[in-house]
Design a protein that fits this description.
By secondary structure, the chain is of the alpha/beta class. Helices cover 29% and strands 20% of the residues. The longest helix has 24 residues, at 226-249. Bound molecules: zinc ion.
């Protein structure tokens, strides 16, 4: 498979405030997992008057670390990329503490009932924060917040979730891509709210933003050649799509059989998440008119 060279994050000290750039600090939560890597990176933008991006999971140690990091700051904006349980839940506490508005594209749409095990497994790992409803809704291109020396603009990037939004720090030519682009791995795209066609379009959208010099993702290390990195992510997704189409055309009709063939080199604990991605690819291929669902719920070429 093609794809970007993923980086590693090796010197993590949970709860420590790291100044990763002159105007950017990061605190990493101790919630490592197969989806969050070392844990959630919460970012603090500015000095004196600050914005916080993705306050993170409900975890006492992380809440205390953020409280300490913000002790002499005035928080004026709480920006949230999307409503997974490792990103948004502490926003409610931070809003309560500081009075700063929570800012996001919108709440997560309520999920439809599902009897699909693999969907449950992925939603358990990346549980939804359905309680989150931002004080301020930002559309694509809106200025989300402003402070001394910083301007944050919303870049709506549906795909990982339909409400996913990246935040651009304009003065520093930095993008906070949330889970849209991660530094250590590809992103889970799990239907129905996750949408592969939208995801690839949103990758093209951020790749087309020529001016971004550095990405600071929620999970994993900084991405210092973002356009090239995202182009490689797009190539990886399109290659996977070709493989899924090839599998359907070779007569494989069901998703578990496709996963067994296409993800043979991927750790088994990730196969349920991989099944969600294959479903997402199949739905994109269906949209493109290349596959259709059979009466028995399998897939066949058109
Ligand atoms: Zn997420």
């Amino acid at each position: 498979m093609s794809g970007p060279e993923f980086g590693t994050l090796d010197d993590v000290v949970y709860g420590r405030v790291d100044r990763v750039a002159p105007m950017i600090r990061r605190v990493i939560a101790e919630n490592p997992s197969k989806f969050t890597y070392r844990g959630t990176g919460t970012y603090i933008i500015g000095e004196g008057e600050v914005a916080v991006i993705d306050p993170g999971p409900v975890l006492d140690s992380h809440r205390d670390a953020i409280a300490a990091a913000l002790a002499s700051e005035r928080v004026t904006a709480i920006c949230v990329t999307h409503c997974h349980s490792d990103h948004s839940p502490l926003a409610a506490w931070l809003h309560e503490e500081t009075g700063a508005p929570t800012i996001a594209f919108g709440p997560h749409p309520p999920p439809p009932p599902s009897d699909d095990d693999s969907a449950d497994e992925v939603t358990v790992e990346e549980a939804l924060d359905l309680a989150f409803d931002p004080d301020v809704r930002v559309a694509d291109g809106n200025i989300a917040a402003r402070g001394p020396g910083w301007t944050i603009r919303a870049v709506h990037t549906p795909g990982h979730t339909s409400n996913h939004t990246c935040f651009a720090f304009e003065e520093e030519a930095v993008l906070f891509p949330g889970d849209h682009v991660m530094g250590w791995s590809t992103t889970v795209v799990s239907p129905p709210d996750g949408d592969m066609a939208a995801y690839v379009d949103s990758l093209r959208k951020v790749a087309g933003r020529g001016g971004d010099r550095t990405y600071w993702p929620t999970h994993g290390p900084a991405i210092t050649q973002p356009q090239r990195y995202v182009e490689a992510l797009i190539a990886h997704r399109l290659e996977r799509e070709e493989q899924v189409l090839g599998a359907v055309r070779s007569g494989i009709t069901d998703i578990p059989a496709m996963v067994a063939v296409l993800y043979a080199d991927v750790r088994e604990e990730l196969h349920k998440a991989a099944a969600r991605s294959v479903l997402a690819h199949l739905q994109k291929l269906e949209l493109d008119g290349l596959v259709r669902v059979t009466p028995t719920g399998g897939y066949e070429p058109t």
